[in-house]
C-alpha cells in the first residue's frame, strides 16, 4: 500500500535532496510539495496526504503554527537545520525528527517507525471527511504543543469562536468553533449533547435521568455533562435506550 507524502520546505534544494533520498523507499509516493505554510495547508486539504515532511523554520508561520491550523493532522516527520527544536518536536509526539543535512541512515530509521505506526493503526474509513477516534490533530497553546489522538479527547467545550479540548489533565483552547468541529467529527464516536459540549461516547461511564426530560452523563474522569432535552431524544435512539 502506497503512503502519500507531502514535502513542506521553503528551500528548493532541500526539497530536491529529500525527494532523491526517498527514491529508495518505493512505498512512499510524493504527491506534492509546498514552500510555505499557506501553500502547505492548501495542499494538505487538497491532496489528503498520509505523511508530511515538515520544515519547522519557514518565512511567515512556522511549522508548529501551520499544524495548529489543521483540523486533522497527518503523520509528521520534522526536517530542520535547527537542533534546538528537537526536544519540542518529540514533546508534541511527532513520528520522528530529522536534522539537516538528512542522512540516509536516519531516514531509514524514520521509515521503520512509519511502518510500525502504519501496521498498528489500520482502519477502513467510511467517509474520509469525517474524523474518527483513530485520527489525531495538533494543538498549540502558547509555548506548549501536542499531537492529540481523538480517542484521548473526552470532551469539547464551546468558548465563543474557540473550543476547549479536554484530554489527560489538559484543557487548551483551539481556534475552531464547536459547530465547525461537529461537522467534521463522526457521530459514531462524538455526540453534540448540548449547545456547549461535544462528548466522546467511549468516555461515558454512567447515564442518568435529569431535569426536564434531559439526561446526565458521567465520564470516566468523573466529569458530569448534561444532555439537553432535545438531544436526549436523539441520544436515546442512537444508544438504543
From TrEMBL:
Database matches in SUPFAM superfamilies: CheY-like
Protein known as: DNA-binding response regulator
Any one Pfam family match given in the protein's UniProt record, by short name: LytTR
Any one GO molecular function term: DNA binding
Occurrences of domain Response regulatory (ranges): 4-115
Protein keywords: DNA-binding, Phosphoprotein
Record carries keyword Nuclease: no
SMART domains named among the record's database cross-references: LytTR, REC
InterPro entries per UniProt: CheY-like_superfamily (IPR011006), LytR-like (IPR046947), LytTR_DNA-bd_dom (IPR007492), Sig_transdc_resp-reg_receiver (IPR001789)
Amino acid at each position: 500500500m502506497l503512503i502519500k507524502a507531502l514535502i513542506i520546505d521553503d528551500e528548493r534544494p532541500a526539497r530536491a535532496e529529500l525527494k532523491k533520498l526517498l527514491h529508495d523507499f518505493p512505498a512512499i509516493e510524493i504527491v506534492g510539495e509546498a514552500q510555505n505554510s499557506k501553500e502547505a495547508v492548501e495542499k494538505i486539504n487538497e491532496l489528503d496526504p498520509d505523511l508530511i515532511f515538515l520544515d519547522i523554520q519557514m518565512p511567515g508561520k512556522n511549522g508548529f503554527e501551520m499544524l495548529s491550523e489543521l483540523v486533522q493532522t497527518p503523520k509528521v516527520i520534522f526536517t530542520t537545520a535547527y537542533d534546538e527544536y528537537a526536544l519540542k518536536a518529540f514533546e508534541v509526539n511527532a513520528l520522528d525528527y530529522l536534522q539537516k543535512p538528512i542522512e540516509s541512515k536516519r531516514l531509514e530509521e524514520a521509515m521503520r517507525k512509519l511502518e510500525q505506526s502504519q501496521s498498528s493503526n489500520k482502519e477502513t474509513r467510511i467517509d474520509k471527511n469525517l474524523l474518527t477516534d483513530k485520527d489525531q490533530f495538533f494543538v498549540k497553546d502558547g509555548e506548549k504543543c501536542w499531537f492529540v489522538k481523538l480517542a484521548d479527547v473526552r470532551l469539547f467545550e464551546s468558548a465563543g469562536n474557540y473550543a476547549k479540548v479536554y484530554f489527560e489533565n489538559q484543557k487548551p483552547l483551539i481556534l475552531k468553533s464547536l459547530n465547525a468541529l461537529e461537522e467534521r467529527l463522526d457521530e459514531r464516536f462524538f455526540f453534540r449533547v448540548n449547545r456547549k459540549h461535544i462528548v466522546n461516547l467511549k468516555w461515558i461511564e454512567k447515564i442518568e435521568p435529569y431535569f426536564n426530560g434531559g439526561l446526565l452523563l458521567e465520564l470516566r474522569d468523573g466529569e458530569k455533562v448534561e444532555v439537553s432535552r432535545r438531544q436526549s431524544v436523539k441520544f436515546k435512539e442512537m444508544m438504543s435506550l
